[in-house]
Amino acid sequence: MDTLLRPWTPDDAPIILAASVEPMMDRQFTAQIDSLAAAEEWIALLASHRTDDTAYAFAVLHEGVPVGNVAVSSVERRHLTGWVSYWMREEARGKGLATRACRAVSEFAFSELGLFRLEIAHRLDNPASCRVATGAGYAVEGVERARLLYDGVRYDTETHARLATD
């Protein structure tokens, strides 16, 4: 795989902890990351998902240092589908890394995992995420009303998809 991506390792825990305290990043983690131990547990959880063939997460590297995450999750073997997500640390945003990482993980999902359809959704108030999805070849499919709930507020999302044949 491209040297842009590699699996997360326990040594990356300080980077995960630092990322988790950036504004709005708490939404990117399935559990609260408030210590190195919690960051190590998150990384171990990612490894277990890989072993279970349910999700594959990768550190996005810039000059050899992890600055973000890209993943294909909700791997569903019957229909050969998956869900792509990504986040970047503040200092790495706007450099095209998320788009490149999204393309790379998509190619991994199609060629290595044998998936056929990948989906991405983003909040309508997140135009940067929309640029990543479209830049990575994901076609807009529509809006899901009130899909997400954060801090008591519902948000619409725009769904994108990419097929192995695209």
From TrEMBL:
Pfam families: Acetyltransf_3 (PF13302). Coiled coil: none annotated. Gene3D superfamilies: 3.40.630.30. InterPro entries: Acyl_CoA_acyltransferase, GNAT_dom, N-acetyltransferase. Residues 3-156 form the N-acetyltransferase domain. Belongs to the acetyltransferase family. RimJ subfamily. This is GNAT family N-acetyltransferase. The lineage of its organism: Bacteria, Bacillati, Actinomycetota, Actinomycetes, Pseudonocardiales.
